[in-house]
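Q: Structure tokens for this one, please.
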Amino acid sequence: MPNYKIAETLDIDVNKVGRWRNRFAKNGYLGIEKDLPRGSNHGGKNSAAQAKLRSKVIKITTQDKPKDATHWTTRSLAKVLGINHSFVNRVWIEVGLKPHLTVQFKVSNDPACEEKLHDVVGLYISPPENAVVFCVDEKSSIQALDRTQPGLPMKPGRCGTMTHDYKRHGTSTLFAALNTLTCEVIGECKKRHTHKEFLSFLKAVEKQTSKELDLHLIVDNYATHKHAKVKAWLKRNQRVHLHFIPTSSSWLNLVERFFGLLTEKQLRRGVFTSVKELEEVIMQFIEVHN
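A: Here is the predicted structure, written as tokens:
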């Protein structure tokens, strides 16, 4: 008999008929001797037996690893416990377990971490009077990548296409200063990212800022930012102040968020036949952003 006729005869759901028939087809009588995970061996919903099984699923998921993998899947864990994978999936959803995902992190080992953190966050929350706060950094080695063949455009039922391989036409470095009040960006593209280019960019930012205002620049600990010539220039220009974020905490510098937008909206899927074209697109993006 087909599943729907059996379901009508027994007055049960047709999907349940299919599940039981599949179990019998796969494992014979052994497959239907117990209803997992809700059979007599594990009790009904909210029973003590099922609560124990739930705890076991959680414990194994969080404390053990399978022999052949770095993390569990619903089916691999269900196989080990001899239960249905849908039960494992329900438990994971209820308690918020996602073994297939990881989140990257790094704790700063900067001995002055707390002091620098307070300094930078203080600039964001309560900036000084008669001053402007910039987040400054460089996005180095931006590649001008061209695809080896033209891609096909998107159309109904099919996404756009790009070849997996590409041609390299050189690199460029973007120096950017994000105004924390207006979110406007001052940007310049340069071939290199040494202290000379950084100092040249500082001078450009200083020239574009009203002489009546002090400049507070949030930067990371890259060696070029601490070069002797940079320090000498800062001594001669008392209105410019550098504030260093703790090591391994690039997330504290808001210009990194702008770099993320640039990558997402222009660079990742962009096609550039030359460095000049790449730099023109970057500067156009900054203009539209502003």
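A few notes: The longest strand covers residues 131-147. Residues 37-41 have pLDDT under 50 and may be disordered.
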